[in-house]
Amino acid sequence: MNRRNAYLITAALALFSAGPAFSAPAVDHNREFQACLTLAEKRPAEALESAQTWLNRGGGDHARLCQALALFHKGDFTTAGARLEELAPVLGKDDPKAGASILGRAGWAWLRAGDNVRAERAYSRALALQPDDVDLLIDRAIARAETERFWDAVADLDAALKKDPRRPEAYLYRAAAHKALANDRQAVADIDRALELRPGDPDALLLRATIKAQAGNLPGAREDWSQIVRNTPNSAAAKTAQANLDRSARAPAPAAKGDAKGPAPAKP
C-alpha cells in the first residue's frame, strides 16, 4: 500500500488551497507551506526544524500539519497519527473533505505504526465526513483485514468497487480477503479481473500462484512464478517467486496423482 506518499503532499496542498488565506504580510505562508511539505517528504528532519521556525513566525495549524507529515516521513508514525487526528477537526472545521483527508492520513500513520484498531477508527471518522471516498473505503478494508475481519473488509471493497469498478488494487485486496475466508473461486475471479486492469501485476500473479499451488496445480503455479521473475526481476514478488520455483524444483514428485498437492509456497 506506496501510493500514499505522493497523495499526502497532494491532499495537504489541496487543503491549503481550499482554506482561508493568511493575512500576515511579513511571511508568504503559501510559499512556506508548499516548501515545507516538499521538504517533509525528501528530508523530514530538516522539515521539522523549518516548520518550527515557520510556526514561531505565525504559521499556525498549517505549520503543525507540516510537522505531522514530516514526522510521518521520518518514521514516527504514532506521533504523526496522534497529531493528525488532533488537527483534523481544526483544519476541517469548515471543510469536511479536508477533515476527511487529514483523518485518512492519520489512519495510514496508525496502520504503519501497527495500531490497526486506531487506524480503522480514523478511517471510519473520515468516511463519516466523506462516505463516497473510494480510497478511504479501500484503506479501511486494509485495516479491517489486518485484524482478520475479512468479511468487513470485503464489504468495504464491495462498496468501493460499486463506486469505481476499475480499481485493480481493490480487486486484489478483495481476492486476498476471500482467500483468507477459503473462498478460492471468488479470489481467483477477483485476481483475474485485477490482471485485466493491470496486466502482469506481480502481486496478483503471486497470489494466484499461491492458490494454484495449494490446490495442487503446481505447473500452473510455476507458470505464474516464472512470469513474475521474467517480467519484474527486481521486485519483492520476484524474490518470493524465485524461492518458490527453487523449492518446487527440489521437491520430490508426488507418489499418486490424487495426492498431488506440491510443496507449500513461500509466504509473499
Tell me the helix content. over 70%
| Mean of all residue-level pLDDT scores | 87
User: How would the global form be characterised?
Assistant: elongated
The arrangement of helices and strands along the chain is HHHHHHHHHHHHH
Described by strand count, sense and barrel closure, the largest sheet is: none
Low-pLDDT stretches are 5-10, 16-24, 255-264
- Topology, number of strands: 0
Q: What Rg, in angstroms, do the CA atoms define?
A: 22 Å
Percent of residues in β-strands = under 5%
Indicate the structural class.
Answer: mainly alpha
Number of contiguous helices: 13
The end-to-end span amounts to: 14 Å
Give a nutshell description of this structure.
This protein has 268 residues and is mainly alpha-helical. The protein has 13 helices and no strands.
Which properties best describe this structure?
13 helices, mainly alpha, elongated, 268 residues
Question: Helix and strand layout, with pairings?
Answer:
Layout: H1 3-18, H2 29-42, H3 44-74, H4 77-91, H5 96-113, H6 116-129, H7 134-146, H8 150-163, H9 168-180, H10 184-197, H11 202-214, H12 218-231, H13 236-250
